[in-house]
Amino acid sequence: MQNPWKELSVKEWWLWSISMLIVTVSNLVGGSFDVLTLAATWVGITSLIFAAKGNVWAQFLMIAFSILYGIISFRFRYWGEMITYLGMTMPMAIWSTITWLKNPAKNGKEVAIQELRLKYIVWLVLFGTITTILDMH
Q1: Which of 21, 43, 57, 123 could form a disulfide with 4 if both were Cys (CB 3.0 to 4.6 A apart)?
Q2: Which residues contact 53 (CB under 8 A, 6 or more apart)?
Q3: Bridge partners, 111 (sequence order)
Q4: CA-to-CA separations, 29 to 33, 71, 77, 83, 118, in angstroms, rounded
């Protein structure tokens, strides 16, 4: 795995820096400064920048963000948010990280593209149907 910071263009550095500045100032000026919320936001912004670049570090950061946001959601009793991030987003990020690391593309910077086989289609349809039925009740 390469250093993701070295792969950012000047434009992307500006985008990241301005985004970080805006959320930091907003958090400080908003009157309810919270270090954990600010840290989670910083991690989330950085994850999105790396995800846009197709970098695996985005998934590591999304795992960290999910944990931080899960803690924040727990503190504010946002149970649905907590369940969503700890029960869906974090496991997806973990699975994506594992898949990415096990299947690197030839250039070593991206994940190799696989053909969608019938068994995966069957699993997708099965779990999609089960999820839809459970969600309707």
Answers
A1: 57
A2: 4, 7, 8, 12
A3: 104
A4: 8, 23, 24, 30, 53
Q: In this structure, what token pair is assigned to residue 63?
A: 């795992």
Which pLDDT tens digit goes with each residue over 87-99?
A: 999 999 999 999 8
69 burial level (CB within 10 Å; 0-12, 13-18, 19+): buried
Instruction: Kindly tell me if the per-residue pLDDT of 73 is higher than 80.
Output: yes
> Residue 63 carries which side chain, given as an amino acid letter?
I
Residue with tokens 């070593």: 108
pLDDT averaged over every residue in the chain: 91
Six token digits for residue 21: 């500045």
Counting residues of the chain whose pLDDT is more than 70, the rounded percentage is 99
Q: What does the alpha-carbon distance between residue 57 and residue 125 come to, in Å, rounded to a whole number?
A: 30
Structure tokens at 99: 């898949």
- CA gap 85, 40 in Å, rounded: 12
